[in-house]
Specification:
The protein is 42% helix and 15% strand. By secondary structure, the chain is of the alpha/beta class. It folds into two domains: 34-141 and 305-371, Periplasmic binding protein-like II (D-Maltodextrin-Binding Protein, domain 2, 3-Layer(aba) Sandwich), CATH 3.40.190; 150-303 and 379-423, Periplasmic binding protein-like II (D-Maltodextrin-Binding Protein, domain 2), CATH 3.40.190.10. Strands 1, 2, 3, 6, 7, 10, 11 and 12 form an eight-stranded mixed β-sheet that branches. A two-stranded antiparallel sheet has the order 4-5. The protein has a two-stranded antiparallel sheet with strand order 8-9. Helix 10 (225-241) crosses helix 18 (386-401). The radius of gyration is 24 Å and the shape is globular.
């Protein structure tokens, strides 16, 4: 997309010697434009909504917002974009959930050229992993607005009481979880997601840190030695040192165990931290520690992703005005405000600005900054049919938790996942 500016040409009239002066370029070239912007019900959307009067006054653009729950949003966007709607201008979307489908169908505008033109807006300021998430086939299809990484939550008081240092490797995590596990006192060394599909995203950091991935060059690799080791480690931690019922745990159930003071370690998304530090939700709110994901054979490689992005409808009739809105909403100034409101952004400059960190716990901010150094830009298989794919690669997680043959489960998962990859070629 190439931004266009209307140029007014002064034409000489009659035989006068003085040319007609060129009118001044308008500082509000899109005044009167109305944008339809479709958002999720999300704290970021609430925070940016409060800033909209500033944008509207500055540009003369009227932004008409619509908000929907996540699944409703996906359904609405899919239905309208399938019909070729021109009325949606900008949209919130989840790059790893529906982004590949939206891009393949031509619903998202390629922002590669536009994003590289504005040096003040500064594309280079965005974190590499976050940009990787919204890049498909070397084209930029969205701008990151909310980011996420996997970190290790732990009980500071229990580690101190037992003179145990924070685990820096997965082997150290296994040893610490074993030592601190005491089911007779309803204290478990470890808790995490164990439900087949929800567990995949948090398992992914184990996979990457062992040196594996879900696929390589179109070939499924979830039965590689690295993947099997990751499955086994994740499963052993839950089977040997986790609470009962872990097979049915998504993040709310796993967090509830930690909130009730019944677990020492919990690896999960950094974006969920307030569920543990809010005294209204957690009985251990003042005892929560934050640490980078422990290293495996390949080092510490947690996922580092864009969980939500802004996209531009490829068929919008207001391309330039919509891009102005997206630039404003993702500018350094607005990202700072959004981050101060509790929404972890993608700009390196904001994470390096004390003003961008002041509302986060110090240890949390340091952990996030360290975790942003990785460029593993996905936390699940990179496919269109993400539901079946997550179900396939999540099978060995549950096999490992139940003490079953992990290699056999991984082979079956690899076959099922390869069929999905082949279907999408």
């Amino acid at each position: 997309m190439v931004l266009s500016l209307a140029m007014a040409l002064g034409l000489a009239a009659g035989c006068g010697t003085n040319a007609t002066p060129k009118p001044a370029a308008s500082d509000k070239p899109y005044a009167g434009t109305q944008l339809r912007v479709v958002f999720a019900n999300h704290p970021w959307a609430d925070a940016i909504k409060a800033q909209l009067p500033e944008f509207e006054q500055k540009t003369g653009i009227k932004v008409n917002l619509e908000n929907y729950f996540e699944d409703q949003l996906t359904q609405k966007l899919t239905v309208e974009l399938t019909s070729g709607t021109t009325t949606i201008d900008a949209m919130m979307f989840r790059p790893l959930q529906e982004g590949k489908l939206f891009a393949k169908n031509g619903w998202l505008n390629d922002l590669t050229t536009s994003s590289q033109k504005d040096k003040i807006w500064d594309l280079s300021d965005f974190n590499k992993g976050a940009i990787g998430t919204v890049t498909m086939d070397q084209k930029l299809y969205g701008v990151p607005i909310v980011t996420e990484r996997e970190i290790l939550y732990y009980r500071k008081d229990i580690l101190q009481q037992n003179n145990i240092t924070v685990p820096k490797t997965l082997d150290e995590l296994l040893a610490a979880a074993k030592k601190l596990n005491d089911p007779s006192k309803k204290l478990y060394g470890f808790v995490a997601r164990g439900q087949r599909s929800p567990a995949v995203t948090q398992y992914s950091s184990f996979l990457y840190s062992m040196g594996g991935d879900f696929a390589k060059d179109g070939k499924a690799t979830v039965n590689s030695p690295e993947a099997i080791k990751a499955y086994q480690t994740y499963g052993d931690l839950q089977r040997l040192y986790g609470p009962p019922g872990t097979l049915n745990m998504a993040w709310p159930q796993a967090f509830a165990v930690f909130q009730q003071g019944q677990a020492v370690f919990l690896p999960d998304a950094d974006s969920l931290y307030t569920n543990l530090t809010d005294p209204k939700k957690s009985t251990v709110s003042d005892k929560v520690g934050f640490a980078p994901f422990p290293a495996g054979a390949a080092g510490s490689k947690p996922y580092n992703i864009t969980s939500w992005a802004l996209g531009l409808n490829a068929k919008s009739k207001n391309q330039d005005a919509t891009w102005e809105f997206i630039k404003w909403a993702t500018s350094k100034e607005q990202v700072l405000k959004m981050q101060q409101a509790g929404n972890p952004g993608a700009r390196e400059s904001v994470w390096n600005n004390p003003e961008g960190l002041k509302n986060f716990p110090a240890e949390y901010a340091a952990t996030v900054k360290e975790s942003m150094k990785t460029s593993v830009d996905h936390d699940r298989p990179l496919v269109i049919n993400i539901g079946p794919a997550r179900d396939a690669v999540g099978g060995p997680i549950q096999a490992a938790i139940q003490g079953q043959d992990v290699a056999a489960a991984a082979n079956a998962a690899n076959t099922a996942f390869q069929a999905i990859l082949d279907k999408e070629k």
